[in-house]
Amino acid sequence: MTHPIRRSSAVKAVAAGAVVVLAATALPATPAVSSPAATASGTRPAQHVIMFDFDGFDPRFLNGRYADLAELPNLRALIEAGTYGVADGSYSSYSNSSRTTTATGAYPAVHRNTGYYYNHESDRGVSQERYIEPGVETIAHSLKRQDRTSAYLQWYAVQNYGATYGDPAALYTQPGGNCEARADQAIALLRGEPVNSGGTMVDPAAIPDLITVYCDDVDGALHDDGFSDPDLPAALARVDAQIGRVRDAAREAGILDRTAFLVTADHGAREWTIPLLPEVLDRLSGMGFKVQVISSSGGVPDPTSEIVIVASPRTADITLRGGADTAKNARRIAKLIRDIPGIAAVRDQQDLRRLNASDKLGDLVVEPVEPYHLSTLVDGAPRASHGALPEAQVPMVLSGAGVRRGVPLRNVGLVDVAATISALLGVQPPANSQGRVMRGAIKRS
C-alpha cells in the first residue's frame, strides 16, 4: 500500500491553475471496509503486544543527523531482532490527530481529530482536541468487543473512546511523571500487580493482550530548545531504557517468546528561529482585506475579520470569510504567500483531501521551510515543533513473537498500526480502519 503522505511533495508547485500540485494518490475520504490484508485469519501469532509510543521521536535519532545524541541500545536490539522502517504519520502532523490515526487505523478525514485550526461552529481557534467522530472505533473499542483485554498507560488517544479509568478489560491510567513512571505500571501489569487508575487500584485478572506505553520526554525537550536542548540526550536514553526494563519484565513473567513489541511515534520535529508571519501579514493586508491572527488556545476573531489565521510554528491555517471568501481570492492569496522566500508549501482544500486531512482545516494551510516559522514569537530562540509535512515521518519498529526478522518496512504508516496489532493478536481491526497489516513483517502461521 502506498500512502499519500509519503508520495506528497513538500516543495512549492508551479503548475498553472493550482495552488499546490501534489504527486499524491487519493485514498477514500470516507470509512472503508477493511481489505482482506487487514482481516484477521483466525490465527494468533502473538499472545501479547506491547507498544511504545514516543512523542516527537524523529527517525533521525536512529539514522541521520541526530543519531549521535544517544546510543539507544534497547531500541536497536529490537530492530536487530525484528524489522524497521520510516513510516508516514498523518496530516497535519500534530500529536492528537496523529495519535488518533494510530488508535483508529483511519485518516483524519475519517476520525476528524484536528489541530491548530479555526472552528466555525464555536467561532474560536483550536490548538489540539480530544475528539473522534461518532461511530469511529478505536483499537480499545475493537479489542474489548472481541473479548480481548488491553491497558493504555497515559496513551490518551483512547481515553473515554473505548478505555476508561477503572475498567480492567480496557484500562486507562495516567500516572504522570516521565517515561519511567509509565513503564513502572507496565512492569506491574506484567508481574500481576495492581496499578493506579484514576485513584482506584485495579488488578486485571491476567496480563493484558495489549499494553501501550506513552512517553513524552523527548517531545518536551525538543519544544523547549530544539535539537540542541541539553536535556535531549538524557530524554532519549531514558525512553530507550524503559524498553529494556519492560522487556526484562516480560522475560521474568515467562511471556517474552509470546510477546510482540511495536515502537513508533506521532511525529518528528523541525527547528525554527526566523519569523515569517510578519511578512505574510504584510502581504495579506496589502490586498485590502481585514486580516486577524487569533490564538489557537481559544481566540475569537472580530466579526469583521475577512482573513482569519491560526498560526503555529510549522503551519498557518487560513480561513476566508465575507468578501474574501471566493475561489479567486484563495488562488490570489496562495500565490502571494507562495512567493515569499522561506515558504515551503501552500495547500488548498483539494491538496488537503489528497492527504486525507480533516475537513475542519481552513481554506489554505501554509508551511515554512526550516528554520523559518509562522508563530507570533520573534525572539529568535531555537526551538523545534511539528505540524507540517516533513515532520509526518516516524520510526516504525516491529520485533518479537510473530514478526519476521530483517524484512524492511516500506510504504507503511501510522494508519497501519491498529490493523497490524489486530493481526498479531488474531482479531479484526477497528471497524473503520483504512490501514492494512504490515504483512511482509508478520509471520504466516
Question: Would you mind describing this structure in some detail?
Answer:
It comes from Micromonospora peucetia. It holds the Pfam family Phosphodiest. Residues 1-23 form the signal peptide. With 445 residues, the chain is an alpha/beta fold. It has two domains: 4-10 and 28-270 and 387-441, Alkaline Phosphatase, subunit A, CATH 3.40.720; 271-385, Gyrase A, domain 2 (2-Layer Sandwich), CATH 3.30.1360. Helix content is 25%, strand content 20%. It has twelve helices and 20 strands. The chain has helices at 4-7, 73-81, 95-104, 108-111, 139-145, 179-190, 217-225, 232-252, 277-285, 327-338, 349-354, 417-425, and strands at residues 48-54, 83-88, 117-119, 124-126, 150-153, 170-173, 195-197, 200-202, 210-215, 259-264, 270-272, 274-275, 291-294, 307-311, 316-320, 343-348, 364-368, 372-373, 383-385, 393-400. The protein has a seven-stranded mixed β-sheet, with helices on both faces. It has a five-stranded mixed β-sheet with strand order 13-14-15-17-16. A hairpin with a 2-residue loop joins β7 (195-197) and β8. α6 runs parallel beside α8 (232-252). It is globular and about 70 Å long. The protein starts with a helix and ends in a 20-residue tail after the last helix. Residues 6-41 have low confidence and may be disordered.
